[in-house]
Amino acid sequence: MRARSAVAQVKMEGVPTGRPVVQMLFGAAMAEKKSALFFSLAGYTQQALEWAEMAGVACFEFAYDGSVSGCNSIAEAVLRDGPSAFPVSIS
Question: What domains can be seen in the chain, in order of their start residue?
Answer without folding.
Answer: 6-85 (3.40.50)
